[in-house]
Amino acid sequence: MTLxxxxxxxxxxxxxxxITTREESHRTASxxxxxxxxxxxxxxxxxxxxxxxxxxxxxxxxxNGLSLTVEQGEFVAIVGPSGCGKxxxxxxxxxxxxxxxxxxxxxxxNVTGQRGKISYMPQQPALFPWRTIEDxxxxxxEVSAHTPPKAEALAEARKWLSSVGxxxxxxxxxxxxxxxxxxxxxxxxxxxxxQELMLLDEPFSALDALTRSDMQRWLLDIWEQNRRSVLFIxxxxxxxxxxxxxxxxxxxxxxxxxxxxxxxxxRPRREEIxxxxxxxxxxxxxxxxxxxxxxxARLTP
Length: 301
Ligand SMILES: Nc1ncnc2c1ncn2[C@@H]1O[C@H](COP(=O)(O)OP(=O)(O)OP(=O)(O)O)[C@@H](O)[C@H]1O
Ligand SMILES: [Mg+2]
Fold this sequence. Notes:
Domain ABC transporter: 44-277
Structural class: alpha/beta
Organism: Paenibacillus illinoisensis
Largest sheet: 6 strands, mixed
GO molecular function: ATP binding
Bound molecules: adenosine-5'-triphosphate, magnesium ion
Protein name: ABC transporter ATP-binding protein
Keywords: ATP-binding, Nucleotide-binding, Transport
Low-confidence stretches: 4-38
């Protein structure tokens, strides 16, 4: 399977419907300003990326001129129809796939096709079955250039495991854990990786509603203390609005950015915002956009 050149021209991004203002919310590298007043380059810029899979004579266009930005310390969510190309986009940002055209920049540097620049939690937890749970979490440090001493790393891993309800499972192997527990381990491994930019591909999708809500609260707390740059894929609009500073709404495949929504709620965020008018309005608007895309997909043969 190879990615081949995609000749389709990128479409013009969609309109605003009163909530989305690309002009207002899209800050470029030259305009972002850090707390110290110094101008800072975005943690991530994806510029006009086209990608398609080719198998024998068939070409499947997956990304169609997709561009997005994550500023330093910003939490950005991506929502889009199933199969539109979200995980493929992450594979491209992580350097696992090369796009036919377009660029991936981190801190202003062209890193298109380069691996090892991001901390990544894939959609499937992908734990190593022969390593214990704590050794799976420790892997984040082992593969990094700045490996902390083993005892220190172990104490840190155990502390985190217990904080996500996995105390007592340190010596267990992945097959002894439920899907949701495995997701929490994979999430910790990404969190403890040293790379500044985290890509999270539906990290909570296998969790029951209650655990999911706990994990959202937990992630929000950790993120508000550490302010890593995060790009987060989710199917859950409420989750996106609760966690993110900005949301990109993607089209059907081949995916492009249809809308960009700035989430205006103060931090630290309280769960009560989910009942506020501004929250519910945005939730309704994004659901409508998603429904429109689903309708279009049904009409396309
Ligand atoms: N390695 C591959 N070879 C061929 N086609 C692929 C490959 N990986 C993904 N695809 C196709 O590309 C399209 C986008 O897949 P992708 O996994 O990026 O979607 P997604 O938006 O992450 O979906 P979901 O929300 O269901 O996770 C799909 O049609 C999928 O079948
Ligand atoms: Mg996916």
